[in-house]
Hints:
mainly alpha, 7% strand, two-stranded antiparallel ribbon, 41% helix
Amino acid sequence: MSAPATPPGAPQGERADYSGLLAAMERSCGSCAGEGMVDSAAWTTWRRDYDALEEVRRAARVAAGHSPAGEMSWLVGGAPDGSLPRAPVAAERALRDHTHATLDHREPRRCTDCRGAGVQPTETGTRLIGFLVRHEFTRTGQMAEAGDRR
């Protein structure tokens, strides 16, 4: 395979560096953070519910005069004399029950916004794609035989 052509105006013998051109053509996908995969809807819902329960748990603990962080598994069983406030106990139990109902796995799926590529075209990249389509370039970079205008 030969080296890329030297761009016009560049000193002879230098290899072409197209990294700036590629950076102008595409950006990391915001939906999947460039990974090409996203979590399933079920996992996203589970995680959202977990975060909400965790927030309720913290608020209940603070309202009852306890630290908002740390393990308080003793709350789940309750005090033998029933002296513990109900809200922290209920919040701890709800979070524990939700945690035990954890999905088996995150079930990642292909990102629909970037079709799994992890990148999306920028405005400039979209304009280049439009140019290539107008001039009938195929996905492999070949000119289409039918309708060749040249």
